[in-house]
Amino acid sequence: MAHTHSHDHHHHGHGHPHGHSHGPSAHPAQAAHWSILRMPVPARLLAALAVSACLWAVIWLAMR
Q1: How many H helices and E strands in the chain?
Q2: Does residue 35 have a pLDDT over 60?
Q3: pLDDT band at residue 33, thresholds of 50, 70 and 90?
Q4: What whole-number distance in Å separates Cα of residue 2 and Cα of residue 49?
Q5: Whole-structure pTM over 0.85, yes or no?
Q6: Residue 59 above 60 pLDDT?
Q7: Which residue has the higher pLDDT, 16 or 64?
Q8: Rounded CA gap, 36 and 46, in Å?
Q9: pLDDT tens digit sequence for 23-32
Q10: How far is CA 5 from CA 2, 27, 47, in A?
Q11: What value does the mean pLDDT take over residues 27-44?
Q12: Pick from 11, 49, 55, 57: CA 20 to 30 A from residue 2's CA?
């Protein structure tokens, strides 16, 4: 027994223009002074742990 069905794919986009262009009026890319992607993996892990500890401290202080 063959089972066939169809789905209506409705796209719920918004209709206003975004003004996105890649023409000559586009802003040139700027050099990043600092990037997390340039950090070594251990430094990234330490930074993530430090941020996490700070956020948990905020939560702990808010709960007191």
Answers
A1: 1, 0
A2: yes
A3: confident
A4: 54
A5: no
A6: yes
A7: 64
A8: 12
A9: 566 788 787 7
A10: 10, 48, 51
A11: 85
A12: 11
DSSP secondary structure string for all residues of 27-54: PPPPPPS--GGGS-HHHHHHHHHHHHHH
Task: State the Rg of the chain over Cα.
Answer: 24
Decide: residue 37, CB within 10 A, 0-12 exposed, 13-18 middle, 19+ buried. exposed
36 contacts: CB under 8 Å, gap ≥ 6:
44, 47
- Residue 28 CA, chain-centre distance (Å), reads 21
Neighbours of 39 (CB within 10 A): 13
